Amino acid sequence: MDWAYIGRVLPLYGKAAWLTFRTGTAGILLAAAVGLLGAAALRWRVPVIRRIVSAYVEVSRNTPLLVQLFFIYYGLPKIGIRTDPEFCGIAGLAFLGGGYMTEAFRSGIEAVDSLQEESALSLGLTQSQAFIHVILPQAAAVSAPAVMANVVFLMKETSVFSAVSLMDLMFTAKDQIGLYYRTAESLLLLVGAYLMILLPLSMLGTFLERRLRHAGSGT
Amino acid sequence: MPDLGLEVLWKGRNFIRLLEGLWTALRISLVSALISILAGILLGVLAGRKRSVFRFILRGWLAVIHIMPQMVLLFLMYFGTSRAFGWNLSGEASAIIVFSLWGTAEMGDLVRGAVGSVPVIQRESAEALGLKPPQVYLMIILPQAVRRLIPQAINLVTRMIKTTSLVTLIGVVEILKVAQQIIEANRRASPNAAFGVYLTVFVMYYLACRPLTLMSKQLEKHWR
Q1: How many domains are there within chain A?
Q2: Closest-CA residue in chain A for B5?
Q3: Nearest CA in chain B to A184
Q4: Quick one: pLDDT at residue B164?
Q5: I want to staple B165 with a disulfide (CB 3.0 to 4.6 A). Which of A48, A64, B113, B137 is the partner?
Q6: Which domain holds residue B213?
């Protein structure tokens, strides 16, 4: 193990890790927004849109991110939709994650007993008050473990971004192996960088799951 | 109507070649799935017993597999082993090893969970009726665990098929690589081929995975 070499390339990996973290976070936040909208459309049975959301969930969950990215990055420009690599990565992650997040939020909302909503309405709350103050907090507690699992899953999925020429951790490691044959050092840095991003996320997930296990009320 | 670059599919053997590429990807995932399911059942049954050392092995194995992206695991296997042991694993062999290691741990966990989900009273009642331990396991526990297990195992296979798309990045010539080759070869004649060909790949993956997802959902409903 050549520590001097590791010290020299450390900034490269730092930059790549920041790119992975930045694009991952942006994609995940967008995915969560898509998921909330999707779950809301399913819950209120919005005509037409509900069908579109269901179809979207199936398509996004039954195709690999890499194939989605190839289509967005190389396919869409041919019909005039051009994107830069970073935007493409974020959009791909949001497309994939949106489907998973919709499912997570939907199952959370469905898990709340309809009695809760009826009681809230009979107490004089309006539909939207009942949703925000009564249903959403309980649904959030049920959804949280699945949502956190999705967050970790999506952050790991960013590892294919190098395929659309984003200089992320995978790209940097492959590049260094190709240029200098520093296989052992590159792989160590690669694993270390991913651990630094993923371990805290995964621990947060475990912590939340423990905390929220008894959060449901009325049961 | 803009040029969607779909005509390139009907040129020569292009469409057949894409299907062959899909089969390469499916073959890798199906071989890995088969290994995972067999090894996972064994591991899960062993880990399901109380105070079993396999329980700790499974937990550690899962923790390691879960924290790293599949792509990193593929890299470690593909580049790492040649450096550490002097092996020269092909991309396909690396992929099968990584997916089997991943699948065995996941499958083991599913089996452990499914066996654990059968109420204790089932075992006790069977024993009270005079059945021997192997009989209890084969005739009482397994049939009930299997109902929970099969939908989850199908989901694991679906995930494996989707993950197999990564092997193009360690040099395996599968559907995405074939798609790239077709697009390159027809760059002049059909400049928009990238749209049509990647759309086709997208649809093919969907058609490969969707029936499995549907089957798993229906079985889950059916057995509830």
Answers
A1: 1
A2: A78
A3: B80
A4: 96
A5: A64
A6: 7-223
pLDDT exceeds cutoff 80 at A197: yes
pLDDT for the residue A96: 97
Q: In this structure, are residues A24 and A168 in contact, taking their beta carbons and an 8 Å threshold? A: no
Residue of A nearest to B70 (CA): A156
Of A111, A109, A129, nearest in space to A119 by CA: A129
In a domain, B1, yes or no: no
Confirm if B114 and B146 have CB atoms less than 8 A apart: yes
Domain tally, chain B? 1
Please indicate, yes or no, if residue A50 is contained in any of the structural domains: yes
- Contact between A67 and B198 using a beta-carbon 8 Å cutoff: yes
| ipTM score assigned to the predicted complex | 0.90
Q: Which chain B residues have a beta carbon less than 8 Å from that of A61?
A: 213
Task: Tell whether A36 is covered by a domain.
Answer: yes
Q: Is B12 left (phi over 0), alpha (psi -120 to 50) or beta?
A: left
**Interface contact B1, partner A, CB < 8 A:** no
Whether the Cβ atoms of residue A163 and residue A70 lie closer than 8 Å to each other: yes
Q: Which range (A155-159, B27-31, B130-134, B172-176) has the least confidence? A: B130-134
